[in-house]
Amino acid sequence: MHRSLFNSIEQKTGVSMDEIFALANAIQHADFTSEKQVRKIVRRVAKVSNRSITQELEDKLVKSIIQDGASLDFDKITRMMK
Questions:
Q1: Helix (H) or strand (E) holding 41
Q2: What's the superkingdom here (predicted)?
Q3: Residues 72 and 27: beta-carbon distance below 8 Å
Q4: Do 17 and 10 touch, CB atoms closer than 8 A?
Q5: Contact predicate 49/78, CB 8 Å
Q6: Which residues in the chain land under pLDDT 70?
Q7: pLDDT at 66
Q8: 74: Cβ contacts below 8 Å, ≥ 6 apart
Q9: Quick one: residue 53, left, alpha or beta (phi over 0 = left, psi -120 to 50 = alpha)?
């Protein structure tokens, strides 16, 4: 991809591409049956998307993701936070 595209994304979101790629890599290789890993990813997505989530919402997200057992993408987790 072109560096100008990355710069544009970084300017619009305030999130570095390195951080986005690291999060995508973590999601891609995560064990979605591990509560500890899922909590870590949920917190990371919240941080990257500049959203604060309550403990109750975090618990619901983690429970939902673990029950699903399938891999998730950044967009799906973000939509769940709305």
A1: helix 35-48
A2: Bacteria
A3: yes
A4: yes
A5: yes
A6: 1, 69-78, 80-82
A7: 87
A8: 20, 23, 24, 27, 45, 48
A9: beta
- Count CB-CB contacts under 10 A for residue 36: 9
Determine the residue type at 76. Answer: K
Chain-centroid distance, C-alpha 70:
15
The single residue listed with the structure tokens 């290789």 is 29
In angstroms, the Cα distances linking 11 to 14, 16, 23, 59, 60 are 5, 9, 18, 32, 32
How far is residue 27's CA from residue 7's CA, in Å, rounded to a whole number? Answer: 23
CB atoms within 10 A of CB 69: 9
pTM metric for this prediction: 0.70
